Amino acid sequence: MSETKAKITLREATQADIPALAALGRDSFVAKFGHIYSQENLDAFLAETFSEEAIGRELADEGRLYRLAFDEAGELAGYCKIAFKSAFPDHARGQRAMELKQLYAAPDRVGQGIGALLMDWAMDQFRTRGADEVHLSVFSENPGAHKFYRRYGFDKLADIYFWVGDHRDDEFLFARML
User: Fold this and answer.
1) CATH number for position 18
2) Distance from C-alpha of 123 to C-alpha of 131, rounded to nearest angstrom
3) What is the three-class DSSP state of 155?
4) What pLDDT, in 10s, does the model give residues 27-36?
5) How many Å apart are CA 54 and CA 137, to the nearest integer?
6) Are the CB atoms for 100 and 173 separated by under 8 Å?
7) By the 8 A CB rule, do 132 and 126 touch?
């Protein structure tokens, strides 16, 4: 089943999508955050998180679900990854907290509505699957992302950290009750 909006089509990820998904994850992360890290930390993180092997393991994990956004030419324009269990159980206020793990648009596609389309899909999934709370981690110095998530009813719940090698990022845990 696929949905279409503004010449973008959403569909499930398959094994055949792994190379494109790994490349888009790397490209998006580097475009937005690459300048923050040493090359050594960045390279190690990209290899651990966005290698084809890592993406393949994630796709096989029954506790995760990907949705891919394709443009009219069939190019991968963005993706969303959700988890059916939050990685932040100590902060959960609900009984069934789930998590938005990643929401990326291709660097040249940011601002074209892809994030909103994927976020709408993710929120529908959380509701359908019985979540009573949704968590997401967002870089503390990313006000555009803060604004985007607040439009969906999320707000800061806690200060948390995200490690890229030996570099610690200050992050915010955003949450929303459903």
Assistant:
1) 3.40.630.30
2) 9
3) strand
4) 999 999 999 9
5) 20
6) no
7) no
Structure tokens, 96: 């069934």
What is the C-alpha separation between 160 and 138, in angstroms, rounded? 9
| Cβ within 8 Å of residue 170, ≥6 positions away | 139, 140, 141, 159, 161
Nearest to 135 by CA among 84, 64, 71: 84
- pLDDT digits 0-9 by tens, 14-53: 999 999 999 999 999 999 999 999 999 999 999 999 999 9
What is the C-alpha to C-alpha distance for residues 12 and 159, in angstroms, rounded to an integer? 32
CA pair distance 131, 137, nearest whole angstrom = 17
List the domain range (segments joined by +) for residue 72.
3-177
Contacts of 144 (CB under 8 A, 6+ apart): none
Report residue 6 as tokens.
């503004």
How many domains would you assign to the chain? 1
The residues, any chain, with a CB within 8 Å of residue 140's CB and separated by 6 or more, are 159, 169, 170, 171, 172
Phi, psi angle pair for 22, to nearest 5°: -65, -45
Report the residue count for the chain: 178
In 39-109, where do the E strands start and end? Answer: 64-70, 76-83, 97-105
pTM of the model: 0.92
Q: Which two tokens stand for residue 161?
A: 């950290």
